[in-house]
Write a structure and sequence with these properties.
single chain; 4-stranded antiparallel sheet; 26% strand; 7 helices; Methane Monooxygenase Hydroxylase, Chain G, domain 1; 7-stranded mixed sheet; alpha+beta; transport; Acetylcholine Binding Protein, Chain: A
Length: 382
Amino acid sequence: MAESFALLCLLIVPHIAEAVCDISWETLNERISQETYDFYNPPWTVTGDSIEVGLKVGISQLKSAGVSDLSLTIHVLQTWNDPRVCFNASSLPSGQTTAPLAYRHQGLVWSPDVYPEGAVTSTQHDVILPNVFLRIQPNGTILKSNRLTVQIQCPTSDTKFPKGNQRCIVRFKSYSFTTDEVCLSWLKEGFTKLDDFSSNVVVDEIAIDTCKHTLFLDEQPCIELSLSLERNFDVYLTRIYLPSAIVVFLSWISLWIDVRQVPARTGLSVVCVLSLMTQTVGLMVVSDDDGSILAVDAWMIVCLLYTVWALVTFITAHYLDSTCQRRAQKTAIMNVEEEMNNSKGKSCTIVGYKRLERVVKFVYPVSFVVFNVVYWAYFMSG
């Protein structure tokens, strides 16, 4: 489909490449800098035909910014022909096929308003200088490239996140022109993988195609870049699952501290709860907005409940122990020493909180192991 669309564009565009221009590059550059020509109007005001704009994208960095976002650093190359900027090739230095236009003069040459549709944020790189170049060939063909970092919406429909695949589509559109004015198509090898991608995603497939877009005007030019991604589960295992499991283990360790060691046990239990709460809230910030419960959400919620369970167990045991001690002190004041050693007092001290802790020490790890068996059996299925 992309090839047929590009062929149609080639049939529409006039053969301006065969035009002969007598002015030198120095003269043309001077006229551009002095704004002698009206370069603000599109080329079709002169040619009367639509303009073919070829596009090529180089992906230099790709990383998952969250459950539903994808961050891309791309080099966008646009090429089109404007007969008003053609010049004599003999005026170029020997071996040079294009003439660079100074950055301060690039705004004086008409360029298409192509933008990445669906971008949440878009940043033009300007270190050390703006990462933009514009070069002109003698036949009037203009090459323009800029370096951008865009964050696009890339929602996932897989509730087993972070396991599974994700498909992201980046559409490049013209905002103010229609297909009768601008014909947008992919150049040969429309995308290039410039560098290694981030470790948290693996690219399975990259495809290019055309698309249809209509907003306020007639049909507007649109092409799309489709990325099929597979998440690297090892990254999430080391950054989310293992740390949260270790916190749950530390909460279980707190059960072995004597209930009367209040500062030590309180500090460890509260730190574990706060650690899981911070990690859970941080994960929810980057989760989908549709309210769906993902596999990683279920894991974090269960781990948080286990740490809260350990804290509640300590509070309950400490309350039972304190109640028993107050009762013993009260009977001592009343000089009823035999009541301090009766079966009821013993039941309060030993059977009350110590039996509670013995049960929790056993049920806590066993139930967490059972949960892991069920969770990973479901998670790894399919």
